[in-house]
Design goal:
Mean pLDDT: 96
Structural class: alpha+beta
Strand content: 15-25%
Order of helices and strands: HEEEHEEHHEEEEHEEHHHEHHEEEHHEH
Low-confidence stretches: none
Shape: elongated
Helix content: 25-40%
Bound molecules: 4-amino-1,4-dioxobutan-2-aminium adenosine-5'-monophosphate, magnesium ion
Number of strands: 16
Largest sheet: 8 strands, mixed
Length: about 475
């Protein structure tokens, strides 16, 4: 008989139904003549209670084999539960232990472990309540994101992970090479001879799929990417990963305002969807991790985001009586302390800041008529800070060429990007959502390393 998921049994199981369940033992409680097991298969926060009766064949040796962490299959009848806390429980007529689990060395004990400790046991931490809930919410977010775009006719496009261009120009690239690092071939002038490398030129892991997404938007109008991106950012913070997932919609015939509307609709849709699909998990986060999780989610779904220009943001920051670590003046990039002040304290909701100074933004952003700012926008979230970065793109060939020249970006390498402005150019815009920052925001988890199964950060690539 096909095993049923525990979430399904807890919700829909009826007394006298015969079911098979498979999972891992969370706890075992022995009483005189019988024992209680709590079994979890990852499908829900709640466990299925299983009562082992003393008259099961081989009861005593079976009970010895079953320990916290062991994997079991139980087949039997569902019965109404006598105890509190669950509607239904299982009284198996047969139980099979697949793999034992040595209680002396099993690192997951029945106490609260710190998230730091759990990171060291990344191969086991998904079996805890919190990480289990995180990865279910993460899955629900991914599913809602695809639904949002698919319902609106956006094409999911797959952009390369290996690329020769630095989209953001921030110099945070990981090199991809198959040169022998012990004997690097060199030119006469001492520089590396990349003609002997795999691609015949320097190549990197992508920091963003945007430039290629723009190519695809120029024939499908509305596209999005959803894939991993890589940044060799040597910052050990609770918001940065070296490998993270990004969602990048790109929309043709769209300006900055359309882009901001899309970002707002998108976040509202995803929050609403996850509120509906993962209510128990969000309730758990609200109780155990951050008391504002549910209020934040409801606030996002039902209120308009704040929208202010960068210039207004700077004025507000100068006016407030806060002593920031990084002083503010027009022209500087907003630091996370500024972003959090705006979203968390001043407006108490997601805040979109737009029209940033051109000198602190990437080459592809559209120059505004003032000649000083570009049509960029960041969505700032309470607690997390920047969660989305986006812009209207420079669609005018002459302006783009001029900007690239000013910023020393070689035009030969991006000849195809310029071609898009020669052949049927059109105003277009898009943004990038950091997937892990979204999951952090939604769950209230403090550290970004605890919302991705296997975090990649400086000096750590275990598992
Ligand atoms: O603001 P960013 O750098 O924008 C881009 O890459 C554009 N090409 C996006 C676009 O317009 N298509 O990055 C976008 C988002 C950030 O707002 C942040 O949420 C996330 O990606 N992000 C990171 N998340 C985790 N770890 C890091 N090191 C991140 N760097 C950026
Ligand atoms: Mg950004």
């Amino acid at each position: 008989m096909e095993a049923r998921r525990i979430t399904d049994i807890l919700r829909n199981g009826q007394p006298d139904e015969t079911v098979t369940v498979q999972g891992w033992v969370r706890t075992k409680r022995e009483l005189k003549g019988f024992a209680f097991l709590e079994i979890n298969d990852g499908s829900s926060m709640a466990n299925l209670q299983v009562i082992l009766n003393g008259d099961l064949p081989d009861y005593e040796p079976l009970l010895k084999q079953i320990t916290t962490g062991s994997s079991v299959e139980a087949i039997g009848l569902l019965v109404p539960s006598q105890g509190k806390g669950q509607r239904i429980e299982l009284q198996p007529s047969s139980v099979r232990v697949y793999g034992g689990c040595d209680p002396e060395t099993y690192p997951l004990q029945k106490k609260r472990h710190s998230f730091e400790f759990l990171r060291d046991i990344g191969h086991l931490r998904a079996r805890t309540n919190t990480l289990g809930a995180v990865f279910r919410v993460r899955n629900a977010c991914a599913s809602a994101i695809h639904q949002f775009f698919q319902e609106r006719g956006f094409l999911w496009v797959h952009t390369p992970l290996i690329t020769a261009s630095d989209c953001e120009g921030a110099g945070e690239l990981f090199a991809v090479t198959n040169l022998n690092l012990k004997e690097i071939p060199r030119l006469e002038n001492g520089e590396i001879d990349y003609s002997q490398d795999f691609f015949g030129k320097p190549a990197y892991l992508t920091v963003s799929g945007q430039l290629e997404a723009e190519i695809m938007a120029m024939s499908f109008k509305d596209v999005y990417t959803f894939g991993p991106t890589f940044r060799a950012e040597n910052s050990n913070t609770s918001r940065h990963l070296a490998e993270f997932w990004m969602i990048e919609p790109e929309k043709a015939f769209c300006d900055l305002e359309g882009d901001m509307n899309l970002a707002e609709d998108f976040l509202k849709y995803v929050f609403n969807s996850v509120l509906n699909t993962c209510p128990e998990d969000l309730e758990f986060f609200n109780q155990r991790i951050d008391k504002t999780v549910l209020a934040t989610a409801e606030n996002i779904v039902s209120n308009q985001f704040e929208r202010i220009s960068y210039t207004e943001a700077v004025e507000l920051l100068l006016k407030c009586d806060r002593a920031f670590e990084f002083p503010v003046e027009w022209g500087v990039d907003l630091q996370s302390e500024h972003e959090r002040y705006l979203a968390e304290e001043l407006f108490k909701k997601p805040t979109i800041v737009y029209n940033y100074p051109k000198d602190i933004k990437a080459f592809y952003m559209r120059l505004n008529d003032d000649g000083k700012t570009v049509a960029a926008m960041d969505v700032l979230a309470p607690k997390v800070g920047e969660i989305i970065g986006g812009s209207q793109r420079e669609e005018r060939l002459d302006r783009l060429e001029q900007r690239m020249a000013e910023m020393d970006i070689p035009q030969e390498e991006l000849w195809w990007y310029l071609d898009l402005r020669r052949y049927g150019t059109v105003p277009h815009a898009g943004f990038g959502l950091g997937f892990e920052r979204l999951v952090q925001f939604m769950t209230g988890m403090n550290n970004i390393r605890d919302v991705i199964p296997f975090p990649r950060v400086p000096l750590s690539a275990e598992f």
